Amino acid sequence: LKRVAWLAPAPCRWNSGLPMNIGVLFVPQQEAWVVERMGKFHRILEPGLNFLIPLLDRIRYVQSLKEIVINVPEQSAVTLDNVTLQIDGVLYLRVMDPYKASYGVEDPEYAVTQLAQTTMRSELGKLSLDRVFRERESLNASIVDAINQASDCWGIRCLRYEIKDIHVPPRVKESMQMQVRLSGRE
């Protein structure tokens, strides 16, 4: 049995996951395929029937043009009044320019996620704790604006950013609840 397994050919695997160039290709709707000819950008294949030269042309990138949803991991942020919050969010984005998304940045999703995290920390640092809860919508909008300014050269557009959860330290939460109780008695 060992000898038979040793003689059997190894399974062929395509690690890249990119479509092979067989000359005639059908690009699915909501995708853009970036083609290089002899290692240099040649063109972007649109959805539908496309023709390539098998030995010269290579599909280098496949970009989805659908809206992408990315979870922004929980992180610590310090408000203007020195309260440390744990905050996370959801980012909605779309590839607008397949060329820029392919050649502008190595990993567009990672880059935008990192940008969202740093922008969120920066924006939270400008607000006091009570304003963070009141101005959640404007905070989301300012994060989207900052991301769009930076990600334009990557061919990506941020459509929305939503803060999922804001976790306040237990002692601060207790003092907030006591303040509400006291203001209710007056």
UniProtKB/TrEMBL annotation:
Domain Band: 22-180
Keyword Mitochondrion attributed: yes
Main localisation: mitochondrion
CDD domains given in the database record: SPFH_paraslipin (cd08829)
Keywords: Mitochondrion
InterPro entries named among the record's database cross-references: Band7/mec-2_domain, Band_7, Band_7/SPFH_dom_sf, Stomatin_HflK_fam
GO cellular component terms listed in the entry, alphabetical order: mitochondrial inner membrane
GO annotation (BP), single: mitochondrion organization
Pfam families for this protein: Band_7 (PF01145)
Topology in membrane: Lipid-anchor
Compartments in which it is found: Mitochondrion inner membrane
Keyword Manganese included in the entry's annotation: no
Family label: Belongs to the band 7/mec-2 family.
Function: Mitochondrial protein that probably regulates the biogenesis and the activity of mitochondria. Stimulates cardiolipin biosynthesis, binds cardiolipin-enriched membranes where it recruits and stabilizes some proteins including prohibitin and may therefore act in the organization of functional microdomains in mitochondrial membranes. Through regulation of the mitochondrial function may play a role into several biological processes including cell migration, cell proliferation, T-cell activation, calcium homeostasis and cellular response to stress.
Protein name per Swiss-Prot or TrEMBL: Stomatin-like protein 2, mitochondrial
Source organism: Horornis vulcanius
Gene field: Stoml2
